[in-house]
Amino acid sequence: MSLAPYTAVMLASYGGPDRSEDVLPFMRNATVGRGIPDERLVEVSQHYELFGGRSPINELNAALLERVAGELTRRGIDVPVVIGNRNWHPFFAETAARLADDGHERVAALATSAYSSYSSCRQYREDLDLAESGIDGRVRFDKVGAFAESPKFVRAQARAVVAAWRELRSRVGADAPLRLLFVTHSIPLAMNAASGPGAPDARYDAQHLRVAAAVADLATQELGEAPAWELTYCSRSGSPHVPWLEPDVNDRMAEFAGSVAGVVTAPIGFISDHMEVLYDLDTQARQTAADEGLAYQRAATVDSDPEFVELLVDRLVELASVARGEATPPAPPAAAQAAPAVSPARPTTEKSPP
After folding, report:
1. Is 185 annotated among the ligand-binding residues?
2. Claim to verify: residue 170 and residue 110 sit in the same structural domain
3. What function does the entry list (predicted)?
4. pTM of the predicted model as reported, rounded to 2 decimal places
């Protein structure tokens, strides 16, 4: 098996600070051009201080890199796998320069974002283009596309949901009403509208709804009960006057408190336990659940699931086949028919934003 014409793989990620003094510079990089004042960035930076002033994302990416490299080796593919980040060291430009100095000309870029939107897909491509131009095009990056709607991703998420549901069920009893909240990063409504090639079923929220529905179906088959589920959001930022995707996971828990005994949150929008998971779900949402008298369990992220790692390498091999002219590019993330705009748990009068 070959990854030709690629001679290296770059795990392309968001990046994060390793120490307290790096938090504010990192956040300025991550929010450049959005007009967010330092006062707000300092406020948000306190989230990092709860975890020693650092993000877990760098260590998590290093571990994922090792898993991907191991799976490549298992398939007989011998190429270096390196890290490059959009918002902190090593930046794309730094990694690109090292790759060029080592003689690499074609590199496969594997982003750690599973879905398609501007910030999770096209912005990566734009930043990779800038990195290429910064070294006079000596390295060309080809980016693996969105992969959230692949069966292997769905199965990995379903295994995590089943494990979390069973754990919570063991604590609250067989008959207690529970709720399953799928969670992803909120984005502005305008970004959501532009996240697909024009069709509503290609948008960021529609992608998540299809994944959530597929995960819930598999979980139902394994559990022997159908969890009442819905899609919620976290990590809203920016001006309060700009509408973002809703409902917020904390707001939704407060709304149904008293009608259910517990809640499972499933972070299908994130592949690893980085800050949005550790703070937004393991800290903030857990506290909301406690305040509302709800038993709480968070499903695991999928970065260590062997089938998920297989999927990432499948996509690298597929990208190489397309580059060699042996296969056609995969279709963009859109289905012939989108998942319902309202999940089974929600009243039909409360719809997701268009």
Report:
1. yes
2. no
3. Involved in coproporphyrin-dependent heme b biosynthesis. Catalyzes the insertion of ferrous iron into coproporphyrin III to form Fe-coproporphyrin III.
4. 0.91
Quick: pLDDT tens for 147-196.
Answer: 999 999 999 999 999 999 999 999 999 999 999 999 999 999 998 998 86
**Per-residue pLDDT tens over the stretch 110-158:** 999 999 887 677 788 999 999 999 999 999 999 999 999 999 999 999 9
Residue 185 lies in a domain: yes
Asked if residue 21 belongs to a known ligand binding site, the reply is no
Structural domain includes residue 329: no
**What is the rounded distance in angstroms from the CA atom of residue 221 to the CA atom of residue 198?**
34
**What SS3 class is residue 98?**
helix
Distance, in Å, from the CA atom of 300 to the CA atom of 164, rounded to the nearest integer, reads 8
Q: Residue 55, annotated ligand binder?
A: yes
Please name which of 74, 64, 73 lies closest in space to residue 10, comparing C-alpha atoms.
64
Tell me the C-alpha distance between 228 and 231, whole Å.
11
Q: Which helix (H) or strand (E) holds 341?
A: none
User: Could you list the residue range(s) of the whole structural domain that residue 73 is in?
Assistant: 8-147+304-323
- Are residues 120 and 164 located together in one domain of the fold? no
Q: Is 104 annotated as a binding residue?
A: no
Q: Are residues 115 and 227 in the same domain?
A: no
Is there a single domain that holds both residue 141 and residue 159?
no
Co-location of 125 and 160 in the same domain:
no
For 229, what's the count of Cα atoms within 13 Å in the CB-facing half-sphere?
30
Q: Has 48 been labeled as part of a binding site? A: no
